[in-house]
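Run log, item B.
One chain of 181 residues. Sequence copied directly from the ordering sheet:
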Amino acid sequence: MLYLYTPLYRGSSPNTYRQPLNTTILHLGSNLGDRKQTLEEARRQLEVCCGTLERVSGLYETAPWGLTTQPDYLNQALLLRTPLSAHELLRQMQAIEDRLGRERKQHWGPRTLDIDLLFFNREIIRDEHLQVPHPHLADRRFVLIPLVEIAPDWIHPENGKTCSMLLDQCTDSGIVKPYIE
């Protein structure tokens, strides 16, 4: 298990307090404005507010899902180590979305930034604010392709399948291609 050493007070030694780090996988998407710059800024803010990015997938350009009459997305998966709880991480993610211009006007509508919490350790969380693992990740190629790039052997805690297996079994035919400037 990884630990984050956090002093209890100024002048404390690094061994004063050990806080375990949680392993999380996030998915970022943007289809309004300067998509690439927005994702870069989101990654920077996640590192400042939430923890350390251990793995970062390439960028993928993807067709919109759900509401298809909107611009294409840039998507990316991240493996983040964080001392935050799942709910604290969710609050930080939503604050980053808000700071980067996210407006929640239409379900599955266009957005400057969307950050989804796909996995939090191996936990299953189902409450009114948070659903982890993300309930639709196995149905979406635009999520699975970058996810498999950074964590192909990650096991879904509900169905016992690896991310690679989920991608192999996914019936979504949406277009997902590496982003080229």
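Observations after the first pass:
- Strands lie at 3-5, 18-20, 22-30, 52-56, 60-62, 73-82, 114-120, 125-126, 131-132, 176-178.
- Residues 1-16 have pLDDT under 50 and may be disordered.
Flagged for discussion on Thursday.
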